[in-house]
Amino acid sequence: MTNWRDPILKEFIPQVAPLTIVADPDGLLLEEGVLAGIRERGFELIPFEDPVEFRFAYESIFRSRWDQGEYLDLVLTLSCTDSELEALPYDLIQVGRKIAFHLADSFPNLSYPVLKLLDRGDLDILYEAHQRYTSERLGDNATKDFVLRHVFELAPEMIKQPADMLRILLRRHFRGLHIPLSFDERFMHLLRQNEMFDEWPLEIILRDRTAFFLFLQERWSKFLDRASSRGIKEETNSYSLTIPGPVDIPFDHQDVRVYMDNLFAEGLLHAVAHSNFAGLATTWMNIGIQTDPFGDRTKRINKLMATLQSSLPSESSRYGDWIRFAQGWAELLLLVNEQPDDIFERSDKCLKDLQLHLDASFTGWLSHRYSGLINLPPLPPVMLHHVPRLISRQLLGDSKVKIALIVVDGLAMDQWLVLRDVIKEKQPEFEFNEQAVFAWIPSLTSISRQAIFAGKAPFFFPNSIQTTDKEAVLWTQFWADQGLVPHEVLYRKGLGDRGLEDLEEELSHPKLRVAGLIVDKVDKIMHGMEMGTAGMHNQVRQWGRQGVLLKLFELLLDKGFMVYLTSDHGNIEASGCGRPIEGAIADLRGERVRIYSDPMLRSQIRQKFPATQEWEPIGLPSSCLALIAPSRQAFINEGQHIVSHGGISIEEIIVPLIHIRRREKWVSLDTRK
Fold this sequence. Notes:
six-stranded mixed β-sheet; about 45% helix; 27 helices
């Protein structure tokens, strides 16, 4: 076998049995590549998690189609052992073919408890290394060392100088690599055997991405001083550092320099003013030195544009590649739309060229891979309906924890960057752990926002698919299923303009554990916007400066809440492609999407608008048939321009998921003391 997936996928032969029941205690079938392979073979997959939800889906989708004589291959996957399959309902066991897959079968020489800690996306590299380099069984620590070396490229014995350490940390945090805690602890234990790194705050900067980039930012000015003629006389104690540790960092080492342009271009580090900027401006350090605002921004745009052009994911990429690209794309949108008019025209042309390739690639990827996202494990969250599962795990793991989820209706990634910068100007001690998740398609509030508060796919709330009136009920029901009672749960909408006095009183309730809060100001700005993306940035910035969102953050943190922020969908600037003349046949007439209950009616409209896309009801009620407007276009009169949502652009679909906190008072920790 050339791939660990091969023994799994060879078991899925179409039309052998209508139902295949799989014992999958290690979640192998829920890995992105396996899911895609199963679907390519014509199988539909449904996890057995909640018995009631499963029975509803099974009877209404699959059983009804079988009864009508249609053949359909269905895979039912359970996170259980082989013997536990017998506890399934009799009607399933009677018709189902039973098989089982185990992680240990593919990696017999490695410790199973250690393997279970790994993300399934890491198994490709591990499988190749296991085939080549293991000849005998390894214990727990030996397995951790093997994984550290071959999967995460961490070999403590090869880290002999500060540049080696910095390269390791840059590679990890720049790519956003996730390494389980157990492996980090093993890595630090081995590193602490070398006294050279006693001063390094590894317990802080190894796992905390925000802290690591702050660690670098605070030392960049010192490095510039040292690199300039006057830097030789600077005293170390003249630098006030939030993150403890060594002051002199070898930014100029060749293994480190290769990252520097991208760090400043993507906004992970920020250029600083320097008295000797003229002398340093002609060196490789120029992107990290403030000269003039327009020139600095142009340097960043050119570098970021080149980086994104060379890193555009393909239709076969993993979802994490698209999330990383979306974060860089948001930075570029913000930079380009802040340029003066003459420079904007040149930048905008390059942006539109890249946009064409982006839209085609992202649409193609969604067509092949989007359905698999729904079935991915919810931790870490990949889609919006996974977010309550993340909160639930943290909330129920500690009875003292309180969590607030803020949903900023309509907030796109680039608009979050606007708000983030405004907030950090006012409150520099705020820190943001920035991630992203996928919204639902079509990216409408009634579908995507309801999925957040329901904690499940829209298929399970068909009766309210065109309204948000049931959100409070869905939110309360989700937490009731987790064991919370109504007075421990809060839902409030309509925040964004008015004061927070009433909310403050509700948040003070001693029994309150979780709050779902909707801020609708950005959505209101969007639906009245006539000035495109730049106008959105300007209006969102003005609203941010009014301080409503900042006050909400402060109120929640002061009340002891852990705070998360997300959005139900983003938005794009779109031009008119014409209005369909539908009468009353469309169930929902959005500007970027039309919803029909009859496929024939949808096809009739598509014939008049051949560039539109028919989107099948993936995770939606079968009667929710979407017709998506063409790329960057809307169902409005030709020649008109709006900012809207409902479609499948990267700006509409990939939305921010932010953990908001106050900066900690970090102190250096040495595990050997």
